[in-house]
């Protein structure tokens, strides 16, 4: 029976919405013959966030040394049993109960593809759901397109909605501990070696955090410079992978 693995990193004190994430994951309806594995990994060893969740056979709970979300996700990856993997932040939600099924269906219909990505919805503090900006049409997306869009300004779709073959995430070492680029890292690495699919419907409800206090131009410029460095690191890895000339194909394409 094929498995779909969902990885959630959570930290004590930032787990208020974890029960809502549980309901969202539990409500997913996968194609016949598929099962779900939810890996919830604490960034730290308090055990408190994990105690907020029921004990279910399809939920895997673990904890590790504090190191940030990228390290925490990568630690959870070693326990992923699924042929496909995606992440769900502890404060985020799936838009509907067919979110994961759509990714399975897209990859099953296109066995030469390695990943899917979808538009996001931003959940604002006042309860509004606002479409996140993107400019890509649904359908097949050639390798390198997302890297090109990030290089010219900002990536058109967030890596937080990406579903990738697990063996490909493992091959690229999981999530890079690069601030503000943790979601983009695995997706850019994957699209360096294989084409993907852009979903038409949203793939995630991404909770907007509170707006930081207004800062002066110098501080904003410093943040922009730091972000440019971080993006450069992630793009450099993707470019290096692409230049190897290696093209990836799934060893066992998903089926339904």
Uncertain regions spanning at least 5 consecutive residues: none
Query: How many domain regions?
Result: 1
- The CATH class, by name, is Alpha Beta
Strand content: 15-25%
Q: What is the CATH third-level topology name? A: Spore Coat Polysaccharide Biosynthesis Protein SpsA, Chain A
Total strand segments? 11
Taken in chain order, the helices and strands follow as EHEHEHEHEEEEHEHHEEH
Which shape, going by the Cα principal axes? Answer: globular
Residue-averaged pLDDT, rounded? Answer: 93
User: What order do the strands of the largest sheet run in, or round the barrel if closed?
Assistant: 3-2-1-4-9-5-10-8
User: From the helix content, strand content and strand pairing, which structural class follows?
Assistant: alpha/beta
> Roughly how many Å is the radius of gyration?
18 Å
> Architecture, according to CATH?
Alpha-Beta Complex
Termini Cα gap: 11 Å
Main pleated-sheet profile: 8 strands, mixed
CATH superfamily: Spore Coat Polysaccharide Biosynthesis Protein SpsA, Chain A
Count of helical stretches: 8
User: Helix share of residues?
Assistant: 25-40%
General description of the model:
Helix content is 32%, strand content 20%. The chain is of the alpha/beta class. It has a single domain (3-243), classed as Spore Coat Polysaccharide Biosynthesis Protein SpsA, Chain A. An 8-stranded mixed beta sheet has the order 3-2-1-4-9-5-10-8, with helices on both faces. Helix 7 runs parallel beside helix 8 (217-243). The protein starts with a strand and ends in a 13-residue tail after the last helix.
